[in-house]
Amino acid sequence: MIAQEFIEANQEYAANFSKPKLNRRNVLVVTCMDPRIHPYEQLGLKIGEGGIVRNAGGSAEDAINSIVVVQHVFEVSQIAIVHHTDCGATKFTTEWLRNKVKEANPGRDDVAQTIDNMDFHTFTDAEQSVRRDLKYLAENPLVLKGTSVTGWVYDVETGKISQVDEVVV
Ligand SMILES: [Zn+2]
């Protein structure tokens, strides 16, 4: 079971542990939960330096709570949105997932109502979804004026990132 694997792996980790310095850089990265994504290595961040929010697809809308926290509590003024090729969020739609959840819960109006109020921010093209998130953040009144939002696509085939755009809010 995974719990036992975690306990064993952590024993090894803790045995060689050196406490990282908290050396916060002025950036929050929002990216996908895909296990092929390693934002620290791929972007040259070290542990202790930059906050990372991960969710399905790397959605900025999904990450907005954390964005408000880093901006107001830690005064972070640079946000990077990093989506990637071959993303799981391109392989289904919100409508499809809503129906799947409803089928798994027949007769449950509470489930149907809850899932119908959720949006999974799926997409077909990573560059377009990055632009959608940049627009979303630029128009969100909670994002501080002067915030730099950069948008990127990470290619899982080559390991390369390419910048899509930058907006200053
Ligand atoms: Zn993904």
TrEMBL record:
Give the catalysed reaction(s), semicolon-separated: hydrogencarbonate + H(+) = CO2 + H2O
> Superkingdom, according to UniProt?
Eukaryota
Q: Which GO terms describe its molecular function?
A: carbonate dehydratase activity; zinc ion binding
Entry cofactor note text? Binds 1 zinc ion per subunit.
Q: Which cofactor does it need?
A: Zn(2+)
Tell me the keywords, alphabetical order: Lyase, Metal-binding, Zinc
**Annotated Zn(2+) binding sites:** C32, D34, H84, C87
Name of the top EC class for this enzyme: lyase
Q: Which Pfam families match?
A: Pro_CA (PF00484)
Return the SMART domains for the record: Pro_CA
The EC designation for this entry is: 4.2.1.1
Described purpose of this protein according to its UniProt entry: Reversible hydration of carbon dioxide.
Its family remark reads:
Belongs to the beta-class carbonic anhydrase family.
Query: What's this protein's name?
Result: Carbonic anhydrase
The organism is Mycena sanguinolenta
